[in-house]
């Protein structure tokens, strides 16, 4: 981040920008349920847009929210927050496009479809992004605990001249300006988000865990020891990194771990890994990943299903399930897990 990045807080946002406006939240999954409930509790008029057959309808209604079809919701609203999965957004957009009027806002939590040209909004609507840098369940939990969730704000199209002020009010209403909202662009958010989840947060970490586990088990150590060491303890280390960066983690582990980590970490994640990271970034930047993902969806997701199945079948998952049943820490997270399970899988 450069020193001139702008960060906005609660005092920079004016709640009145959302007065007399209706927000249609399309989708009631991870982000959708959090935005809709936080907006409503902040006093904003909300209508949730879900298809007639939607398995999420019951949950939204049980949470006291008004529910309509995406098209009806868009026609009743001034701001349409598109929080269905990225892959279905273009089809949902085609359905609601006719309901967008000059001066309305199309709001996103991720820039994929705008940045890669899958959605091309009319010139007379504002196109904004408020993207919490967190899974939706934490956005909701933090709001309920009077805490904030850091987020990003970007303006792709400012037809009204008011796009930023309105997006800031939206960010405040879902709790993001309590923590701070960094201004960025659709391009930067999309490319960094995709790179981060592929190379580091989701893809990189899971491969590192599995490879560490397999190395220990192949060398004759017990699967339980390998699970604890390579997966379970990851949370303890990540909590320290989250609280105080690399420094707090290194301060907290033993000198032996610090010396071993500082000298051996770079043996594993070496220049070869850096080259591969650069390759992953290039495929995000030149649109190759986006094209692959769009085609994969058009083909009915055969490769995705296969990869998912292989991941579920990895021995570490069985070992982990057994251990989590036997130890007390599983109970602590039970309510969070229950909450997560309420979100329907996409297939
Ligand atoms: N997951 C996260 O924490 C984060 C997500 N984002 C972004 O937020 C956006 C939403 O992602 P996320 O919350 O994960 O989405 P989810 O997968 O959780 O969305 C599921 C919701 O979308 C509805 N839905 C699915 N397909 C359709 C369809 N064809 N028509 C209408 N509704 C449909 C589902 O209802 P139904 O019962 O009808 O299937 C359900 O309510 C994305 O742009 C994502 O990149 C950004 C930051 C983090
Ligand atoms: C890290 C995954 C993420 O980018 C997120 C929760 O921010 C996503 O797309 O879900
Ligand atoms: Mg992300
Ligand atoms: Mg993402």
Features:
2 domains; binds magnesium ion; binds the ligand CC[C@](O)(C(C)=O)C(=O)O; binds NADPH dihydro-nicotinamide-adenine-dinucleotide phosphate; 9-stranded mixed β-sheet; disordered C terminus; 347 residues; Rossmann fold; alpha/beta; single chain
Task: Describe what this molecule looks like in 3D.
This is Ketol-acid reductoisomerase (NADP(+)). The active site is at residue 110. Belongs to the ketol-acid reductoisomerase family. It comes from Haladaptatus pallidirubidus. By secondary structure, the chain is an alpha/beta fold. The protein folds into two domains: 10-184, Rossmann fold (3-Layer(aba) Sandwich); 196-341, no CATH class. Helices cover 57% and strands 12% of the residues. The chain has 18 helices and nine strands. It has helices at 30-41, 57-62, 70-76, 89-96, 112-115, 136-144, 163-173, 176-179, 186-201, 203-218, 223-252, 255-268, 271-285, 288-298, 302-312, 315-326, 329-332, 334-341, and strands spanning 7-8, 22-26, 45-49, 66-68, 79-82, 105-108, 126-132, 151-157, 181-184. A nine-stranded mixed β-sheet has the order 1-9-8-7-6-5-2-3-4, sandwiched between helices. Strand 5 (79-82), helix 4 and strand 6 (105-108) form a beta-alpha-beta unit. Helix 9 packs antiparallel against helix 13 (271-285) and helix 11 (223-252) packs across helix 16. It is globular, with a radius of gyration of 22 Å. The ligand CC[C@](O)(C(C)=O)C(=O)O binds next to helix 9. Residues 110, 193, 197 line the site of one magnesium ion (MG).
